[in-house]
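Hey all, sorry for the wall of text incoming. These are the two entities for the joint prediction.
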Amino acid sequence: MPRTLKALLPAFLASLLLAGAPPASAQDAALIAKGEYLARAGDCIACHTAREGKTFAGGLPMKTPFGTLYTSNITPDPQTGIGTWTSDQFFQMMHNGRFPDGGLVYPAMPFASYTKVTREDSDAIYAYLRSVPPVKQRNREHDLKFPFNNRSLILGWRTLFFKEGVYKPDPTKSADWNRGAYLVEGLGHCGMCHTAINALGGSSESQAFEGGLIPMQNWYAPSLTSNKEAGLGDWTIEEISDYLRKGVSVRGAVYGPMAEVVYNSLQYLNDDDTRAMAVYLKSLAQGTSPDKPAAPLPSAENSLLMSLGKQIYDRECASCHGAEGLGMPPHYPPLAGNQSIQMASAVNAIRMVLNGGYPPGTAGNPMPYGMPPFAHRMSDDEVAAVVTYIRTSWGNRGAAVSARQANELRAATLN
Amino acid sequence: MCESSISWLRWGLTVTHRFLPILSLLASIVLSPGVAQAQTTPQPPDTMAARVLACASCHGAEGEGTSDVYFPRLAGKPAGYLYNQLVAFREGRRKYPPMNYLLDFLPDPYLKQMAEHFASLRPPFPPPAPPTVSKEILARGESLAVNGDPQRGVPPCASCHGSTFGGMEPAIPGLLGLRAAYISAQLGGWRYGTRTAAAPDCMQIVAGLLSEDDVKAVAAYLSSRPAPTDPSFAKHGSLPMPLACGSQPN
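and here's what came out:
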């Protein structure tokens, strides 16, 4: 060990000389590294970087039911970025959703979640963002419809949906649980999708993590509290961790908006934090496992749908997912007993059949297997039949799907 | 209060971390029967062919294309070209929502492997479709493809794609085995900006010089050509390339 250090010393000294400017102290470097990690956990890059744009320079259009927002430049450029902000002002934004001049931030920025982030962690993220290359790129004006272009409306939103406050650990729970809760409720801002959004664009605290349709994207973010949806009460910690970090698990794989979260954020979290999130998420699940399957309705229409569905399934799906829906986990997800297929909302199951999908390519699963799209090969009736078959076979207890539901999702935004 | 409990937590995590090798060794001993069981679960083949089955429903299992005239053959195109297209779709520079969606979260090295996979395949070419246009239009298409239109500054296809239209390494595609509808849709995409390549985007310049009738003629001619006798690409730098192309730096 000492020998290694000695060998490294000249290189270290050389690097000091080459750097020219006084080197950042080891303490600063550690703070910046911590901030980078936490910025990953907060998934800042997903919104604050446009496609093929400069990192953190903003400009990504975000379509909302109220109009299009353009994300802001958070590089340290003094004119167009946040180069003149102090760490106090940065914390004010994260914690309270206010710009340095006191102006109100649109809640597309998840400050209602980030408010739980500690001052210490906010300062680390601040230090990291100060260290990234500054980019001169002016923020684009938002394009919001009347009356939502009036920022004072945010005050009303805040009264209804925003509760300021750093995360308070629950002393009755384990350290893992508290760390997981801090990450899930705070930087992870999971509630932004997994809590239903109402007509005012707010998430109700009483319905936290109970699931909802993601506006504009037409994917259903399942409930994290109900075992009938994506409640993880029946999953092992390892299965949840695989799902979060690799994007695939023996219980199911991530697609759609969750694939983005794993790709940009969760795959970078360390073992301890992934495990902590898994512990907390598992504890959110309430109630019992799904009931025994209800007897399928013996109507003539349904039995026709089922026989057509089985025919299509055996021809198109069984080669990967198996005649009994067991799949070849983790790469070909199981369909039998898969909660995301049986939820009240059939949106995700229909979209998978129409659009197919690849789980994200991650360090833990760098070459994912893909599901082919069938939109161009199946009629609405065929999609309805096969999805109905999958939702009601092998003990699955989802409801039948209509051709109209399938047809409506053909027009869903793909990306 | 809050910060101190967090630092306690950190300390706890650090301790766990230090003993992790021992813990994982113990865990592997305890779990080994489970691991053995997991290995018997049927697994998909560990091949690129199995991984790109998602592509097969539109492009064919070997990238040979399908009966849908808008879905192109991928097999045997230069890997650099295929890789550029995969990246362009992922980043939205080439717009086709089903492709943009599928590639959204796939990293560069994997896209490179996908490109190399399809570039290495040589399934048989389909018989060329009987032309649906007049002899005059076909002749005009041939003239444009082989000679260009020097008066209007239109370079011949052959000057970059090769006299047999087989493409050039690393990133200029072959033009055979494609249907007229696909070729004209791509030229249209360049004219209207839904398909773009790295700057300078030479094909955007070429497509901008073509009239609707030119597009129809050249698409009809290229799609009527029989399969190449030699499926290899022209060597990098062996063709004159009258325009600078960002995707094929000289």
